[in-house]
Amino acid sequence: MDLDLSEEQRLLKNGVERLMREHYSFEDRRKYRTEKLGFSEAMWMRYAELGLLGLPFAEVHGGLGAGAVETMIVMEAFGKALILEPYFATVVLAGGVLRHGATEAQNSKLVPAIAEGRMKLAFAYAEPQSRYDLFDVETEAKRDGEGWVLNGTKGLVLHGDAADKIIVSARTAGGAREKVGIGLFLVDANAPGLMRRAYPTQDGLRAAEITLQNVRIGGADVIGDPAGAFPIISRVADEAIAALCAEAVGCFAEMHAITVNYLKTRKQFGTTIGSFQVLQHRAVDMFVELEQSCSMATYATMMAGERDVTERERALSAAKAQIGQSSKALGRQAIQLHGGIGMTMEYSIGHYFKHVTMIDASFGDTDHHLQRLASLGGLFGDQAIQR
Amino acid sequence: MDLNFTADELAFRDEVRTFCRSAIPPDIREKLIAGRHPSKDDKVRWTRILAQKGWAVPHWPIEYGGKGWTPVQQYIFGEEVSQTPAPEPAGSGINLVGPVIYTFGNEAQKKYFLPRIVNVDDWWCEGFSEPGAGSDLASLKTRAVRNGDHYIVNGQKIWTSLAQYSNWIFCLVRTDPDAKKQRGISFLLIDLKSPGVTVRPIQLFDGYPEVCEVFFDDVQVPVDNLVGEENRGWDYAKFVLGNGRVTIACVGLSKERIRRIKELALRTRVGGERLIDKADFRKKIAAVEVQLKALEMTQLRVVANQSKLEKGTQDPASSILKIKGSEIQQATAELLMDVIGPYALPYQSEEEFQRGEPAIGPDWAGPIAPAYFNGRKVPIYSGSDEIQKNIIAKVVLGL
Lengths: 387, 399
Ligand SMILES: Cc1cc2nc3c(=O)[nH]c(=O)nc-3n(C[C@H](O)[C@H](O)[C@H](O)COP(=O)(O)OP(=O)(O)OC[C@H]3O[C@@H](n4cnc5c(N)ncnc54)[C@H](O)[C@@H]3O)c2cc1C
Ligand SMILES: Cc1cc2nc3c(=O)[nH]c(=O)nc-3n(C[C@H](O)[C@H](O)[C@H](O)COP(=O)(O)OP(=O)(O)OC[C@H]3O[C@@H](n4cnc5c(N)ncnc54)[C@H](O)[C@@H]3O)c2cc1C
Hints:
Strand order of the largest sheet of chain B: 1-4-5-8
Structural class of chain A: alpha+beta
Radius of gyration of chain A: 21 Å
Largest sheet of chain B: 4 strands, mixed
Number of strands of chain B: 10
Structural class of chain B: alpha+beta
Largest sheet of chain A: 4 strands, mixed
Shape of chain A: globular
Strand content of chain B: 5-15%
CATH architecture of the largest domain in chain A: Up-down Bundle
Distance between the termini of chain A: 28 Å
Oligomer: heterodimer
Largest interface: A-B, 49 and 50 residues
Distance between the termini of chain B: 33 Å
CATH superfamily of the largest domain in chain B: Butyryl-CoA Dehydrogenase, subunit A, domain 3
CATH topology of the largest domain in chain B: Butyryl-CoA Dehydrogenase, subunit A, domain 3
CATH class of the largest domain in chain B: Mainly Alpha
Bound molecules: flavin-adenine dinucleotide
């Protein structure tokens, strides 16, 4: 067992944190949000320069061949700065699909473009009715000679408006909620028949509802087995959960630091409010949530690549449940301890709270994951049943 | 970064597991699985079994019988013992006073007491708290007045765990009433068989006489039994309270509890269905498992960090182990109450168990409610939750 970062990982951490320090104050963020796509193109190119956009891809395809730990490092730093750019959508989600499903030819065409910052991707896995069930896919893909024709509606496509290409899950066979019969298709965002309704999300990011009307794609743009891509989706989702947990921990750390700092400076009744024991204890409660979440984000990172699918799903569900419950417990106090100022758009704390709340509502909330964990038999006690 | 144990660590784990499983006397193991308190004799037997293997005090320095294990190995050892399940080795001697003696004691004290602790020839208890000095320990009043080669001790201790089974007590006593609170305190080892000592057990509300009052009436204690310097006792007390923070989370114990909960829920039928098959019950268990896994990871982070910290400093994360650990212990005790349901009601004393009286209701029901009641102690002792939070707020958060 070894919970240390390697020398290279430490360098990466320092590099990203420096970039955020220099270019991502809360004030900077406010400016970036007013740009055309709702984030900073200049920052995107900086990520490319630092190698972050190619981080998890294989070196032969122009990536850096890094793993889950590196993604954790980057996402945590991004969480602290509350970044707006589509890193998660492009590199973690769509990038994950490419890593686990794309062919040599597909990867060698797409990965260099992503790594160099020339191409953004989105992953349209959800539908209006699907809630957190990734297999609940009604969008259809029908054979059309060499290619395919797609029809249906995809919802909540994170950064769907900024994407140059969108990876769409669609059903080629089977019933509406079956795990078999799902394929993945790489669709050009400008393809005829593809319509995007773009909107801001609660936490200041961007997303789109996407309708597909007889959208035609070529045979070369299928990713993986057109009737058997669900294992790719579920694997990517578990990696995404690990990344989101790390991002949330970055948010929590910042929320905690901002709050403790506020307690030390705000004066009422002739003294700093941090001298009131009831507030001290709540700050400690926040600290407990932060540490427990940090532990689970680490656990999620280590288990994201686990080969035993049941073990992997148990672990990732446990981690996501912890993060979800902490975002409520820690977030509630972060706002409360600020009093009125915590309620304003002007002040940062509410923005963190909104983002972690949206993380809870992505890829399964606490309730969903406790249920999944419970139905998989839980974390401890397989041996019990045998004793 | 790698969460997996190395091949060596795995081999070590298997060695510990195999040994514990085969060496634990079955009656003790069954008692612990059922959730009953191990007796003094159970603890002595088990500690001696460990002593014979050379594992009674693995965390001590090698010269006094320690094993020189890495923090990870020590962690694995603790986990395996509590998941056997086996009792914690005789606690107060091995974990509390032993380290004080080898760190601050003189050669004669080390030579006499340490081997006797390892072999459990002595049974120690901790005499810190007093009626007027609980959380505010430094306000303690028990007096020790020097008279030639002896101290004359007068006063009272309370909440002294298992003092009725002990023959030695380590006490904080006031040797300088004029000095500032913390300054005039000394650390004294007292033979409980000395004339003038009275031990009176107190029953806790679950029925278990776990703690005692200990009265000192002109008790003569040889000056040789002073540990370290006179009036420096507060430093040694802080050392005691700061020790063993890694095991305080009781992760192994809680894992074992969860196994027990699942095992019993498998045998329990509710509304024609096995309790374990009820989705809402499973979800309740899962919620506790998540917290426990997080705590286990927190503990591993602390363990992994241990070797890198300067001596005397603590990982901030370690400060949450007791608070969170006790919360989880309450939660598992509550789940067991859910499992037992109405047959939580009958009360059967330990004596009835000993006499072999038949159980009332399911044979596993008896200890569940008492364990739930007894568990309320955890957030009170060893620094209450509130005191822990005061300390974290001050030391870690700088408030
Ligand atoms: C939506 C909204 C509408 C409002 N409308 C009005 C209005 O119409 N008219 C108006 O006059 N005001 C209004 N207020 C102001 C509101 O009354 C104040 O926000 C409130 O009194 C708290 O003061 P504060 O914001 O300065 O926080 P602070 O007093 O700085 O408190 C910060 C934190 O410290 C805690 N705290 C402070 N003192 C103590 C203590 N002694 N012991 C323990 N904890 C303590 C607080 O509970 C809080 O958690 C409004 C506020 C909001 C958010
Ligand atoms: C089962 C059991 C075994 C024990 N074994 C031993 C033993 O072997 N040896 C020994 O010396 N002692 C032992 N103790 C004593 C234990 O350490 C004390 O009970 C503990 O220190 C609390 O002291 P108290 O009971 O006097 O409560 P008090 O200190 O009177 O506390 C009462 C309440 O007030 C809270 N409180 C106190 N001060 C503050 C503060 N500053 N801020 C906020 N809240 C505060 C406490 O958290 C608690 O909730 C044991 C106790 C129990 C229950």
